[in-house]
Structures are given as structure tokens and as C-alpha cells.
Amino acid sequence: MLSIEPPIGGFTTWSAEGHGHGFEKASFRERVRGRVDRMVLVAVVPRLQAVKILETIASRAAIPHMAYWIEPIEAFGRLVPAGGEDISVEQRS
Fold it and tell me: Which of 8, 32, 74, 86 is 20 to 30 A from 55 in CA distance terms?
């Protein structure tokens, strides 16, 4: 994500375990556990940018059994401290 031009910041990743496709290349440990190590990436970006990200991944780092979905975001915001313990809501629609 950071090597795409322009770099895409503001994304989140975390480790996950997959229970679907991909067991033919699973390690012995993964086969015994019955799940495969995976990574999850979440980014809130405009749809055209999402398409560019998918095209870049497909051309530079094809990931077997990679799953993705695109969902509309009704609103996006952050809870911003308002000078003390109060929280004000900053939101973009």
C-alpha cells in the first residue's frame, strides 16, 4: 500500500485464520490446526482507488486465494478530543 503511487496511508492490517481455500499449500502445523494463517487489510478509500489497489496487487504480488470485497461507507469519522475529557465527533459523509 505504501509503494503505490501516490502511497496510500490510513489502512489497518491484522492477523487472521482462514478456514476455506488454500490447504494444498498449508504447513503441517496449519493442517493439524485446521486453519491457515492469513492477513486482513481494511482501507477506506474512493472506489476508483480501490480498483487501482487491486490491480496493483494482482500485477506485483499475486496472492493465491486472496478474497476481497468492496462496501459503500455511509459515513466516516474520528472521535477527536475536545480539550479535556469531552469527545467531539468529526464526520464526513
Answer: 74
